[in-house]
Amino acid sequence: MKIMAIVMILLTLTAVLGCNSATVSSSDVSLQTSSSSGGHTHDHPSHGPHHGDLIELGNEEFHAELVHDDHTVTIYILDGTAKNSVAIDAPEVVINLTLNGQPAQFKLAANPDSADPEGKSSRFVIASTDLIGSLERSFARPKLAVIINGTAYRGDIKHHHDHGHEHAHPH
Questions:
Q1: Residues in contact with 150: Cβ distance below 8 Å, sequence separation at least 6, in sequence order
Q2: DSSP states of 39-90 as a string?
């Protein structure tokens, strides 16, 4: 029984950490994952400043906001309060998920907001109907991977259908 528990823990760690190894190649980068602790309170809004779904990064050190329409997906990098933009020097952020039963990776390119300083971006965009469709499916298990100030963060994307935009949801 004890061996079975150890094997399950090792398999879980391999699955969780193994998916991220393809997106982070520098040995100088540390990894921060979001942790859902039922005992702490969130001192931030339930939606981001662009009315999108929030993604917790690290121990609420940062947040990301996911917004999409029928053609594009946009990720905004936000501070720990999920109220203010944070421009970073990453050329892209990555969404990893399962598409048609296979691992898939979508790279959202930096698309600096007008207020972002030169060479940095708080906004990342991709045009992909495959990604948009996958975000609507719970079995896709999408995760955002981003490097902020040399630290790799990964957060679970939990897409909610109550954000007010109009498009067909295949249920």
A1: 28, 29, 30
A2: TS---S-SB-TTS-EEEEETTTTEEEEEEE-SSEEEEEEE-TTSSSB--B--
Q: What are the Cα distances from residue 107, in Å, to 35, 74, 93, 95, 170?
A: 24, 11, 6, 7, 24
The arithmetic mean of pLDDT across residues 78-85, rounded, is 96
Q: Are 19 and 143 in contact (CB under 8 A)?
A: yes
Average pLDDT over residues 121-138: 92
**Rounded Cα gap, residues 76 and 87, in angstroms:** 9
Phi, psi angles (nearest 5°) of residue 12: -65, -45
* Dist. CA 123–CA 129, nearest whole Å: 19
How many residues are listed for the chain in this entry?
Answer: 171
Whether the CB-CB separation of 80 and 116 falls below 8 Å is answered with no
pLDDT value at residue 125:
98
Lowest mean pLDDT of 21-25, 90-94, 135-139, 150-154, name the range.
Answer: 21-25
Rounded Cα gap, residues 87 and 78, in angstroms: 8
Q: CA 40, 24, 76, 161 torsion: positive or negative? A: negative
